Amino acid sequence: MNLDVLNTEIQEFIDANIKSDISSLLLKGIPLNYINSKVIIEQIEAKKRCQKKLPTWFNTENIFYPNKLNIEQTSSEITAKYKANLVSGQTLIDLTGGFGVDAYYFSKQIENVTHCEINPELSEIVTHNYKALNAFNITCKNDSGIDVLKQLDQPFDWIYIDPSRRDDSKQKVFLLSDCTPNIKTFQNLFLKYAKHVMIKTSPLLDLTATLSDLKQVKEIHTVAVNNEVKELLWLLERDYEGEVLVKTVNLQKENTQNFQFNFKNESTAHVEHSAPLTYLYEPNSSILKAGAFNSVSQKLKVNKLHKHSHLYTSETLIDFPGRRFKIEKQLAFNKKEFAKEKITKANITTRNFPLSVNDIRKKLKVKDGGHLYLFFTININNEKIILVCSKL
């Protein structure tokens, strides 16, 4: 960690070139001979990535940035804030601290937070940055989180862990058994030292399969940001034997969409099927990831268009955790019939349909964009249909 980076002259140069093209900057040369140009470039690239993802860090003076890969792998502020609202108590230990974003927000809710990071340079950077952020209730440990947990040998209110999803060859992995540390191996240790354990995993994990790997799961949170699933959170509680509650959340600028259901009851939840009515609903990605296809129909009292379509309809408009549309017209999937509508531009979505969006655009000669929304799907009679919609 080269503290010369924090000199006023260098910080001003970094800020002045935050939007500069890196290749052009290198060709032109960096007029600061007393520090390696590569170090400055790394700071510019990493800080640039923080502008939207980590605005608190971006807007705080004297922040030192690690390499851009560490920034890519860290939680965003919006998801870190969400996680922080799930915890409370006196003590929490983050076993895989990384750049320290999660631990920082946990420290807003927990009196004493321990941040563990095995990489000595990254641990040093995080220690420095917490001082710049006035986060004085966080203790940094430069060691393996598992080793720190054993060495401290003390109870915590919460253990948080975000296992590394890179193997020895730096290739991405996502199965629990392939991550480091191996959650399946150490979950008993976690529950020994903390009543509550929060595990962050890849959004690629299958919920049913992962539940068979984990013990005493009380809640699963599928967390999306602007309709893109970013994290799966698994909340374990020592000695918990009840049913698993799944909470879906889609974090947006304007509002947050929430929906929850009992995981065990999903397969038996009652579903009404019908032809398209006045309004059409498309669940957000968090709900789709959680597999709440039947629960949505039962709890929100909307009909499903087809068992496998995952599109819903109702006669009266409701508040729905996803996109809402007014159905203007229903068409059979027929090239000649569609041509009569003279639709040359539209937004296209497929659900349970044999053709891709690109294939449909070529076949029907429809360009992307405009105010119309076309849904290509299958109805309850197993017929291919097109729903011409306007967005609400």
From TrEMBL:
<dbReference type="Pfam" id="PF22013">
    <property type="entry name" value="PG_1098_Fer"/>
</dbReference>
<feature type="domain" description="THUMP-like">
    <location>
        <begin position="322"/>
        <end position="391"/>
    </location>
</feature>
<dbReference type="InterPro" id="IPR054168">
    <property type="entry name" value="PG_1098_Fer"/>
</dbReference>
<dbReference type="GO" id="GO:0032259">
    <property type="term" value="P:methylation"/>
</dbReference>
<keyword id="KW-0808">Transferase</keyword>
<dbReference type="InterPro" id="IPR041497">
    <property type="entry name" value="Thump-like"/>
</dbReference>
<feature type="domain" description="PG-1098 ferredoxin-like">
    <location>
        <begin position="279"/>
        <end position="321"/>
    </location>
</feature>
<dbReference type="Pfam" id="PF18096">
    <property type="entry name" value="Thump_like"/>
</dbReference>
<protein>
    <submittedName>
        <fullName>RsmD family RNA methyltransferase</fullName>
    </submittedName>
</protein>
<dbReference type="InterPro" id="IPR029063">
    <property type="entry name" value="SAM-dependent_MTases_sf"/>
</dbReference>
<dbReference type="GO" id="GO:0008168">
    <property type="term" value="F:methyltransferase activity"/>
</dbReference>
<keyword id="KW-0489">Methyltransferase</keyword>
